[in-house]
Amino acid sequence: MTGLAVWVDDYALRSLPGVELDLSRVPALVMRCFERLPNPSTVGQLGQYRQVAVVGGGDLGEVVRRVELAATSLRIGIIGALPPGVVAPRSLRGPGLLDLLPAHTPGAAHRIALMAAVPIVSGRAQKADEPPAPPRRAEPPPTAPLEVALPSREGSAFAIASSTGGCWVLAELLRALDGKRLGPVLVAQHMDPEFVGFFARWLEATSGRRIVIVSGLTALSDDTVYLAQGGCDLCVTDAGHVVSVPPSGRFIPSANRLFRTFAEAFGARGTAVVLSGMGEDGAEGTVAVVRHGGTAFCQHPSTAIIPSMPSSAQRASPSVLALTPDALAAALGATRRA
Fold this sequence. Notes:
Layout: E1 3-8, H1 10-15, H2 19-24, E2 29-32, H3 40-44, E3 49-55, H4 60-73, E4 77-81, E5 97-101, H5 108-116, E6 157-162, H6 167-176, E7 185-189, H7 196-207, E8 210-214, E9 218-219, E10 224-228, E11 233-238, E12 241-245, H8 255-266, E13 270-274, H9 283-291, E14 295-299, H10 308-316, E15 321-323, H11 325-334
Helix pairs in contact: 6-11, 8-9, 9-10
């Protein structure tokens, strides 16, 4: 398993007291930057480690400046640590930014370790023959959660696509639905294979839902979340079973592949959701879900740390409804099993 090295500056340490010691227990190699960014050449010498830089600032403006500088100068993931009393601004997002940590975030070390496992899919790693998606201005989200009145559907199921910045929205959605009876929830979370077990344990503890890592043919149960085995795609074989299969592309697991098989199996009983992430995975699959009579949502791009995936889903299928995380939870609750 690849080791973890965390570059952390003094601003971040002030906002996240004790995180240095907690990171050593994860375990991670902690590299202190003393109020400056790590040297890019030194970062390059630690190729055997999975690396992430946690940077802060004395005020919000400095955090924004230093995060943007780090994202353009370092080829590693960046996490911003916000000063006390500062709320994460919508403008603070983009390629390389994995997460924003409010001051005194509980469990910050484990959150950093988890986000370091999420692949960065950005212009830095984009294929030369792959044109960037056209820019799209995100409309401001509603000031209050929308009332989404959807009928309960017997035998309903959910498929969720998530990448950079989506882990936390996924956990919050599942936690917000606590006490509501759900059908099976199938998740394609882009992540390196060796971190799937850690992610499953974290998601189960955070959301309170039962998490199953799928290997062979697995029967679906209500109120259970299913993840692909590390390095595999998750596919639905019929309305009652899922299986992990060898990957089909550079996004692992593939949201498009999950959504396509999900659409064929569940038809009008299926609901798909696309959360934060860089790239377009999930857009093609969302079209399949809608074509088979299912319902499709995405996280409102203006609330996503990385808006590319939800924006792509909107462009691919105009019927996709973009909602804030709170409104998404209300909508998924409305589609619960009768």
